[in-house]
Amino acid sequence: MTASAAPLLELRGINKSFGPVQVLRDVDFTAHAGEVTALVGDNGAGKSTLVKCISGIYSIDSGEYFYDGEQVHVHSPRDAAHLGVEIVYQDLALCDNLDIVQNMFLGREKRSGLVLDEPTMEKMAGETLDRLSVRTVKSIRQHVASLSGGQRQTVAIAKAVLWNSRLVILDEPTAALGVAQTAQVLELVRQLADNGLAVVLISHNMNDVFAVADRIAALYLGRTAAQVKASDITHAQIVELITAGRSGDLGLAPAAAAIDLGEVNGEQ
Q1: What are phi and psi of 20, to 5 degrees?
Q2: Which of 146, 138, 144, 136 is nearest to 98 (CA)?
Q3: Distance from CA of residue 130 to its chain's centroid?
Q4: In angstroms, rounded to a whole number, what is the distance separating the alpha carbons of residues 27 and 224?
Q5: Which of 128, 143, 255, 257 has the fewest C-beta atoms lying within 10 Å of its C-beta?
């Protein structure tokens, strides 16, 4: 699917502090429907905090949050879910003792009178997996405990897109997976975007990033170093943006990068 010209999600000048520590500084970020946007940065760059601001876990101190062209105020995960924002965290939050259908509807079960509407839930779960072209799961009634790491990640992603989501954020979806399972998950990530969703991929693996991302946003010490098309940047440039906030003419102004690094090192 062709990406839309206007971003589905647009953040402008986002700031977030915890006490005296400012974690995000004037962060700008966009995500387009039909595209995979990779969010990269070193540990402590602010990726997790930014995602929690998008999802309503943290409130922003200042800045503007636009969704589908309109400014919105997200104060809770419920607000974000109402917009169609879903996050798949690295720990997946799946229950091993439940089957795939039960996990996908956990806390949102369909009922027919006083009993669970199993046929409807099975139908919706199966249709979601089919829509994502998932072929590695033998039965939707398999217990999650019997699934491989890649299959678990697939179920967690399918669970996220089951609820009319429009923006899916994936936190290190290929961490601890083997080569074959990584390829399977990356194919699913690409499928999400091809189905018209906006996908934000958080990853430390640059090979994964360049395999599926349309755009790459690099954070450096709480600032947006750059957000560019993946086709317009090299692996080496991304590494420089992550580690120094700048690569050639791309990234933060030299003075800003130096100030940020000095503050991290305890200099005033």
Answers
A1: -80, -5
A2: 144
A3: 22
A4: 5
A5: 255
> Which residues have CB under 8 Å from 264's CB, separation 6+?
221
| pTM for this entry | 0.89
Q: Cα–Cα distances in Å, from 128 out to 36, 122, 157? A: 19, 10, 10
Enter the tokens of residue 24. Answer: 């995000």
Strands (E), 8-143: 9-18, 21-31, 36-41, 62-67, 70-71, 85-88, 111-112, 115-116
DSSP class of residue 166 equals: S
Nearest CA to 95 out of 50, 131, 144 is that of 144
Rounded CA-CA distance 219/28 in Å is 10
- Cα Rg, the chain, nearest whole Å: 19
Residue with tokens 């089919």: 130
Amino acid at 169: I
Domains of the chain in start order, with CATH, are: 1-84+166-180+198-268 (3.40.50.300), 93-165 (no CATH)
Task: State the virtual CA torsion across 177, 86, 218, 22 in degrees, nearest 10.
Answer: -120
- CB contact at 8 A, 152 and 175: no
Round to whole Å and give the CA distance between 180 and 173: 14
pLDDT in tens, 133-183: 888 888 999 999 999 888 999 999 999 988 889 999 999 999 888 898 899
pLDDT at 259: 58
CA distances from 180 to 90, 172, 209 (A): 19, 16, 16
